[in-house]
Amino acid sequence: QVQLVESGGGLVQAGGSLRLSCAASGTIFSINVMGWYRQAPGKQRELVANIISGGPTNYADSVKGRFTISRDNAKNTVYLQMNSLKPEDTAIYFCNLAVPLRHLEFWGQGTLVTVSS
Question: What's the half-sphere exposure (Cβ side, CA atoms, 13 Å) at 58?
Fold first, then answer.
């Protein structure tokens, strides 16, 4: 099993920045994808960004140029630096770890990000 613990959410004004962190513990397979999803009220959960253990990244169009995902494999931690935040970024942000070769997927409990206008 894998446990994911997120931190770093909060309230920020539009144009501000936040950094989310997600630490994974447990049985971590070396080849995995870590990422962030978000779910706004009344909307479906959507991918924000993810990063493969070897480094390639993927971003939603809505956050390209504003958010940066990174990871520290030695610490099994993934980060999401969010700049130029907009009210529409308000959502619960969930950390995700997937091991495609083993058809495994794990979720964190979520952290709330609120961007005021």
Answer: 12
DSSP string, 5-20: EEE--EEEETT--EEE
**CB–CB of 34/24 below 8 Å?**
yes
Tracing tokens 């942000």 back to the chain, one arrives at: 93
pLDDT tens digit sequence for 90-106 = 999 999 999 988 899 99
- Residue 116 corresponds to which tokens in the numbers above? 């005021």
Residue among 111, 106, 117, 86 at smallest CA distance from 2: 106
Opening angle at CA 82, ends 81 and 88, nearest 5: 155
What digits encode the pLDDT tens for the residues 41-65?
Answer: 999 999 999 999 878 999 999 999 9
**41 exposed, middle or buried (CB, 10 Å; 0-12, 13-18, 19+)?**
exposed
Q: Which residue has the tokens 């529409």?
A: 88
